[in-house]
Predict the 3D structure of the following.
Amino acid sequence: MSDDPRRYAPATLRNRDPILAELRRLLPPRGLVLEVASGTGEHVAHFAAALPALDWQPTDLDPDNRASIAAWCDGLCHVRDPIAMDASASWPVPAADAVLCINMIHIAPWAATEGLMEGAARALPSGAPLILYGPYRRQGVPTAPSNEEFDASLRARDPAWGLRQLEDVAALAAARGFGPAEVTAMPANNLIVVFRRA
């Protein structure tokens, strides 16, 4: 049995470079990027290695994930130690220059999205980005069959989970002082959605 704490998410190898290409465009040249729900840590390790001028703060509620994040980011001096953070509760990081959240909104209760918007609104300065990645439903746009199947599997695991309507997320962001969504289509029926602090 291996004592390597690193966890692996198969989708990361497929999506990390397309996401990185968008982050190069969206993130400020310097400052602190707060990643909410960092999961295995594979994403933040990849992004931080490619964008060393930025400081990175990974977070996750799961202690095993935090151990995985620390292992993946070992040797990256501009990545801070992962910390426990519940998006729906008080945030231990009071300020950031960008907030990044990958694949959390559909694998969490709606309260986590509400907390994400409230916390990001407090933490970000005017003009700074809240960057979301994942699958969404959109009014007037057919949902891909693979996303319909994914949504059904999520709801079977937990009725509080599931693909969110992008317009609902945008309305929540607007109510917390963010501007309109900037939406970029990504591979495998995912989206990059960016809200900027007014």
Remarks:
- The helical segments are 10-26, 42-50, 63-72, 110-123, 145-157, 166-175.
- The chain is about 35% helix and 20% strand.
